[in-house]
Amino acid sequence: MNTVRMTNIIVGTAGHIDHGKSALVRALTGIDTDRLEEEKRRGISIDLGFAHLEHAGIRFGFVDVPGHERFVRNMLAGVGGIDLVILVIAADESVKPQTREHFDICRLLGLERGIIALTKSDLVEPDWLELVRLEVAEFTMGSFLERAPVVAVSSATGDGLADLRAELARVAAGVPARRTEGPARLPIDRAFTLRGFGTVATGTLWSGTLRPEDELELHPTGRRLRVRGIHVHGGLVEQARAGQRTAVNLAGIAPEEIERGMTLATPGLFQPTRIVDCTFRLLPSAAPLKHRAPIHLHAGTAETLAEVRLLESLNPLLPGESARLRLLLRDPLLLLPGDRFIARRFSPVITIGGGEVLDNQPPRRIRRSAAAERLRLIEAENADARLARFAAESPYGAPFEALTARTGRSREDLRQAAPAAGLLALGDWLTPNAAILREKAALEAQIRAFHDKNPLEAGLPKASLSLPPFFLEALLAQAPEIVAEGEVLRLATHRLRLETDEDEALNRIEALFREAALAVPPLAEALAQSGLDQNRARAIVQILLRNKRLIRVSQDLYYHAAALEQLKAALAPRKGQTFSVGDFKDWTGVSRKYAIPLLEFLDRERITRRAGDKRQVL
Questions:
Q1: pTM for the predicted model, two decimal places
Q2: Which of 281 and 454 is assigned the larger pLDDT?
């Protein structure tokens, strides 16, 4: 297997049909990217082509795109994952219509680096070549290619190829490394069967790493697949890293079940979406964009129809303007914040603009003005501030998996970012500190109100709260003013203070049950003898129960704790003895009315054990 580590750079071509993109890639790499029979017969590129070159310690992966206007949709499937572009302009024709459209697409996708190749330089005179250079300088003025190197080359003679390779290495040195940690994401651009291997899917690995035997999830279907093997630039490797052209051999699926536009990703993390909030720029050459206008949306290798929802104003977006808007997608796509997309007019199909995803799971039930303001804030926030916002939009925060689906950040990355984002890691959740403080204040007020209304109760039952257990636990850890006692919560300052008549009633009820021994009165009778109204008397009984001075044996029978202890002591010398209900009645002097509940209580306490009609003292 190939284990040599090199810098990996993905290079895309762009330019008008027949300006020599494929010939240039073939001259640089020795690989013919026109693989289809129709491409060879017609002499034009129809679909994406791929090649590679190792030069100056860099492995370049080339994505050669078709230049014909009819195949721009194929071109768009190839440029989403590139690091730099070679804008190919034929010296004998200069800038043409598809040169402009391809260049617009590169700008809308946020590309920052590139080279301009003036191909077919052997067909023109030096003076003409200089005129083309001037026209190209004017064409690229104010863009990311304004100061890009311009190299005259001839694929036929080889002139300029060495200079172009040198410029590729120089420009590539400034490309920031892709994130290899965290979740893997591989947008698929091809799927086919390879003899001896089976189903193979290819694409540019946008993030993360892949290894043989990894499990991947195929979006948007959700199907889990196993990676049997991985190839990078035709060689079998033990690992594919972000930024590499990657071919994965997949088990358990036929190639016809995989379509361009699907994505392979780390399983169980991402959720395809049908609604995204985004920034959008309308090209100066486009017609005004109306609210609810249909468009063709291209993102990564995927394509779908979408409906535009203007948020800031319902007035049409004018040519050259930018706005924050919402897109409703016909098909679910795996999109993350930061992903770029291209929009093409519904009919005729021409490129009209593009933008960047800000939120892939925006709130659906929200006023248009509120959605616009929310997007304005999100656009201005850094990654940690956005993380804090997404977590805070749920009452108690959000699970790590949900936040990974919304941000693309790994669990470890999220955990490390939590303190700066004002979040607290609670098990599988990230919870805003502000939410804990908010709920702590609300709970303290709720408990205080409960004490005021129920002065004889120990505290507020936990079962009455709607807070998730993990959240309540974290809240209590930061709230010394709230005390948890068993299944109730009370304020640390709360003390049970009985009125004189309540104190007398407590003593009266306790004495009544203590003196009754095992032949206790019904609870209603004890309450009636308390001298208090029913509600206050029941509260007194609850105090006795909490203090374990009374024990509830059955639904209607309450015993003094001392009486039950005496019963247990009386049975202790009979350890191992088997007895009947009648025996028990004789020993205790109680009727069957009391005997059965008492025996069931003793069974629960593991003082006795029932075996048929008999019991044994343990």
A1: 0.76
A2: 281
